[in-house]
TrEMBL record:
Keyword Lyase listed: no
Annotated signal peptide: 1-22
CDD domains to which the protein is assigned, alphabetical: OmpA_C-like
PANTHER family listed in its UniProt record: LIPOPROTEIN YIAD-RELATED, STATOR ELEMENT OF FLAGELLAR MOTOR COMPLEX
Residues annotated as domain OmpA-like: 361-477
Keyword list, A-Z: Membrane, Signal
InterPro entries cross-referenced by the UniProt entry: Bact_OuterMem_StrucFunc (IPR050330), Beta-barrel_OMP (IPR027385), OmpA-like (IPR006665), OmpA-like_sf (IPR036737)
GO terms for cellular component: membrane
Protein name: OmpA-like domain-containing protein
Upper lineage: Bacteria, Pseudomonadati, Bacteroidota, Bacteroidia, Marinilabiliales
């Protein structure tokens, strides 16, 4: 293991370096474990090999360049086991202590030996992911792996070995002389195995389920196939006349050993993208993580003070917010009085698109035509636009390289931080509408600009109404 410490260090350094590069693209830390046939694959000249059950676990880091493609590296461990059974008779020429030549014979009757090896794995693979539904998706990987033997040992488990000495010059075969190492042997032998690193091709196919925006669970199958010989072929015999047991893998019975493992696995992965959690007054934005702290009313009663001084219109005035009657309106009935004589939006929303345009241009055309305005202190749209939401969601589901930046805005009533929260909840509402239509959450980012970027000066109620909006920007990875 010591001579491979440089390879382990390099691989682990790449893993650590990658895991701290959290940007806006999807990045995950994954932990999985699996089991199946993990064995050394080889052939015996005079016997058979039986593959055994093994297991492994890995800690991995994935970085996705876009919504589909990424790379993965990490570090892990797997245990491999094989069992060999010998049935044959060997013969070698030897010289005894008196200088007479003889033939050392060794007969193996169901002689069994198991080999256990622990490998440290360092993989590097290309990954592909695709959503198949609102919560379900597939994840595939293909790449290479170096497996470094950390511990390798053998142990005999059964059978009989019978040794004799045949002197052809006298036509005599000596046996049952234990003082000379001749006779029936059932001794249990143990020892270490010297192995080389294995360079393997690896593949996996998993199905995953989004438990939350930060956590996925997955299950699937995997396969590792080694291309390099784990042993340096030896010309030793399994058991020497001087009583030394060399083991099967170090003998002339084996010429090539490959690593082979395949099976089923389960795992969990955690999205590790950086998320800003504080309000920035300079940039005037707040992100979606902030909403976790504000699940109650958007504005507390009495928090808004405004000089109205406006006569009621012919249609009369009314309290804009009545929390007991409207779930989306969150102020008490007497806290705010506003003039609501706002002309309805007269412009028609165009839902048709040019078939010759690219998907991202179509999505941009739809999003630009959507007039997403909200009532005062409300997170519900004044005018629902189900057809536009449906067209936009279909474009996003069919073209997952398209990303949306959903930005919430408010008028200037109430304080700065309250408006930042209101804007974010509005953006979150729009995102939830698209998620309900099957759009994967990773295709959307939300933030709030609050009162920082009004479309019109907040000098009248009509202008303030137009500033209470959500803006959808179409981008691509």
């Amino acid at each position: 293991m010591k001579k491979y410490k440089i390879q382990v260090l390099i691989g682990f350094s790449l893993f650590v370096f990658g895991s701290v590069q959290a940007q806006k693209t999807d990045q995950f830390l994954s932990l999985d474990m699996g089991g199946g046939l993990h064995s050394m694959q080889y052939s015996l000249q005079n016997g058979k090999v039986k593959r055994q059950f093994g297991y492994g676990f890995h800690l991995s880091y994935s970085y996705f360049f876009n919504s589909h493609w990424g790379v993965q590296t990490g570090i892990g461990m797997q245990k491999c086991r094989s069992e060999a059974t010998l049935n044959y008779q060997s013969s070698t020429s030897e010289i005894d202590s008196d200088g007479d030549s003889y033939e050392f014979r060794n007969r193996f009757d169901n002689w069994q030996e198991k080999q256990d090896v622990y490998f440290v794995d360092i993989p590097l693979s290309i990954q592909y992911q695709k959503m198949l539904g609102k919560k379900f998706g597939i994840l595939a990987g293909l790449g290479a792996q170096i497996s470094i033997p950390a511990q390798a040992a053998y142990e005999t488990t059964g059978g009989e070995m019978v040794t004799t000495a045949y002197y052809s010059q006298w036509n005599v075969e000596l046996y049952d002389l234990p003082q000379h190492g001749l006779g029936s042997l059932t001794t249990k032998y143990k020892g270490d195995i010297s192995l080389n690193p294995s360079y393997s091709a690896i593949a996996e196919l998993d199905g995953f389920y989004q438990v939350s925006e930060k956590i996925d669970v997955y299950a699937g199958c995997y396969c590792n196939y080694g291309f390099t010989n784990l042993i340096s072929p030896e010309k030793k015999i399994v058991y020497q006349p001087d009583g030394v047991y060399n083991g099967i893998l170090a003998s002339d019975q084996v010429s090539k050993v490959d690593l082979l493992s395949f099976g089923l696995k389960v795992g969990v992965r955690f999205r590790i993208n950086k998320v800003r959690r504080s309000i920035s007054r300079k940039k005037g934005s707040i992100n979606e993580a902030q909403t976790a702290e504000h699940s109650g009313p958007l504005l507390p009663a009495g928090s808004v003070k405004e000089e109205l001084g406006i006569e009621a219109a012919k249609t009369g005035s009314m309290n804009e917010v009545q929390a007991t009657e409207h779930s989306g309106l969150l102020l008490s009935a007497d806290s705010v009085k506003e003039e609501l004589d706002i002309e309805p939006v007269k412009s028609e929303i165009k839902t048709s698109v040019n078939k010759e345009e690219t998907p991202i241009e179509k999505a941009r055309q739809i999003s630009d035509s959507m007039n997403l305005e909200f009532s005062f202190n409300s997170i519900e749209l004044i005018k629902e636009q189900d057809s536009n939401f449906k067209i936009l969601s279909n474009l996003l589901k069919e073209n997952q390289e398209i990303q949306l930046q959903i930005i919430g805005h408010t008028c200037n009533i109430a304080d700065y931080e309250t408006n930042m929260i209101v804007g974010l909840k509005r953006a979150e509402y729009v995102k939830s509408k698209l998620i309900e239509l099957g759009v994967p959450p990773f295709q959307m980012e939300i933030e709030s600009r609050g009162l920082n970027e009004p479309l019109f000066e907040n000098t009248s109620e009509e202008n303030r109404a137009k500033n209470r909006r959500v803006e959808i920007k179409v981008i691509s990875k």
